[in-house]
């Protein structure tokens, strides 16, 4: 059951980032020590951000669970959009 949730969250990340596939692949490779611990993300406005592999799953899972509505990529800031609480 946990594997199905991970796969669904991975596929849902398509709505967050343009580089969703490579970011997810790098996350799983770095989790097992086969890649570096930093993941580059590309947003819709062609900005790139580098996250640690520890922060990446929190963002993807929070989006999958509906805790955040998306991300905003500004010049130097990576923001989360939250709905009404």
List keywords for this structure.
single chain; 85 residues; alpha+beta; two-stranded antiparallel sheet
Structure description:
By secondary structure, the chain is of the alpha+beta class. It has three helices and four strands; from the N terminus they run ααββαββ. A hairpin with a 4-residue loop joins strand 3 and strand 4. The longest helix is centred in the N-terminal third of the chain and has 12 residues, at 20-31. The mean pLDDT is 83.
- Largest sheet entry: 2 strands, antiparallel
Strand order of the largest sheet: 1-2
Overall SS class: alpha+beta
**Rg value:** 13 Å
Shape: globular
Measured as a percent range, the helix fraction is 25-40%
Strand content: 15-25%
**Continuous helix count:** 3
Total strand segments: 4
Question: Can you give the mean pLDDT?
Answer: 83
Low-confidence stretches: none
N-to-C order of helices and strands: HHEEHEE
For the terminal residues, how far apart are their CA atoms?
29 Å
In short:
By secondary structure, the protein is of the alpha+beta class. The protein has helices spanning 2-12, 20-31, 56-64, and strands at residues 38-42, 48-52, 70-73, 78-81.
């Amino acid at each position: 059951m946990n594997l199905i949730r991970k796969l669904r969250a991975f596929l849902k990340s398509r709505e967050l980032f343009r580089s969703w596939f490579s970011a997810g692949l790098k996350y799983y490779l770095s989790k097992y020590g086969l890649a570096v611990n930093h993941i580059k993300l590309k947003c819709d406005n062609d900005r790139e951000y580098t996250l640690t592999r520890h922060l990446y799953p929190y963002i993807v899972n929070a989006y999958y669970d509906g805790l955040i509505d998306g991300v905003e990529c500004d010049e130097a800031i990576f923001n989360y959009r939250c709905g009404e609480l």
